[in-house]
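G., before I forget:
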Amino acid sequence: MNQMDDELRRTLRRVEAPDGFAARVRERIARDAARTVDVQPSRFLAPLRLAIAATLVAAIAGGVWYRAETQRRVEQGEEARRQVLLSLSIAGSKLHAVEMKVNHAQER
Amino acid sequence: MKLTLLTLACALLVPAAPFAQTFTIPDRIEKLSAKAKESVNVTLDGPLLQLAGQFLNSGKDNERSAKEIVSKLRGIHVRSFEFAKEGEYTEADLEAIRSQLKSPAWTRVVDSREEGEHSQIFVKQENGMLGGVVILAAERMELSIVSIDGPIDLKQLSNLAGKFGIPSVPTQK
């Protein structure tokens, strides 16, 4: 039993750390911390967020522009249609009137 | 022989300009709108005419005819003026129009005068077909100029009178 106690005491005895151990540990902790900062995602996240925001703004602006352009084209088309109908109606009317006059003159 | 060759060369070099087929509304006519009580000013060329064609409804009888006519045209120009009193336009104004509508490109097919009204219809031939029409209708207090550029069927056009909500012009009997 005593032999076992001695063996345990010997194994678990206090041993002093080698010289500079604490300094090396501190240095390593500092180095690891610095490496962690290097791979922090926030460095890439900011431009990514900006790109996403810019894409969204561009998409919304494009949509608004497309809608306005479609509306403008519809209005322009409707106005052109109205003008065509007016023109053809005036032309047809004048032509018809002349036709009637000529026919009337021939009858006389 | 030399003279024949020279004549042939000159004939080939003569520009087509003096026989220009295009008709433009003279500036002095445009200025009449300032004197008019009411005026209609329509200018529809190429792309706008095609756009109008897309918006004409083939489902409606009247618009189907209009669409058919418009699909072949290159341009439509209408100037119509209604004046408050007589003498607002002169013979010189009309002459500015007639001077462009000369043979061989243009042929006057109708010339009708009746109690202060003078109507003329000019047509141009293109590849043996009707390639355009100009209608000039001058009354004491009204003046209408319609220029249609492109293949057109006059009967089809005449049938459109009184349609689209615009009444046919009444004639004296």
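DSSP finds three helices and no strands in chain A. The mean pLDDT of chain A is 86.

More on Monday.
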